[in-house]
Design brief:
The protein has 5 helices and 5 strands; from the N terminus they run βαβαβαβαβα. It has one domain: Rossmann fold (3-Layer(aba) Sandwich). By secondary structure, it is α/β, with parallel strands linked by helices. A 5-stranded parallel beta sheet has the order 2-1-3-4-5, sandwiched between helices.
């Protein structure tokens, strides 16, 4: 299975670094999209199918936690795999994100940790392509 991936981060340079890590990870990628905030990401998800979202948390307009809540509340989108990629250190906030079915990896991260987070999500059945 090749993944359609969406990288969501308000920092263009960070989006590029995450995209490069995806390439280095060896994950099979069919397409790679970018969004600068949760609102842009939600609009993109509603236009086209994405298998995996790599999501920052602290962003303007719509933060990652709000975005994730809206994705999980939408019957068409709720099965989308989401891995939070963040410097967030608040354990209660990380726990809330995980309770919404998201994986979590800290920045900076290795391509291997990205692959493991995706594999872990797939193994527990938190989502995937229809």
């Amino acid at each position: 299975m090749a993944f359609s991936i969406l990288v969501v981060d308000d920092n263009r340079l960070m989006r590029g670094m995450v995209a490069r890590s995806v390439t280095l990870s060896g994950l099979p990628v069919s397409s790679l999209h970018e969004a600068g905030d949760g609102e842009q990401a939600l609009a993109l998800l509603r236009r086209q199918w994405v298998d995996l979202v790599l999501l920052d948390i602290n962003m303007p307009v719509m933060d990652g936690e709000t975005f994730l809540g809206q994705v999980r509340a939408d019957a068409r989108l709720r099965a989308t795999l989401v891995v939070v990629v963040s410097t967030e250190s608040s354990q209660p906030r990380i726990a809330r994100l995980k309770a919404l079915g998201a994986g979590f990896i800290h920045k900076p991260f290795t391509p291997e940790s990205l692959v493991k987070a995706v594999q872990d999500l797939m193994a527990i059945g938190s989502g995937g392509a229809p």
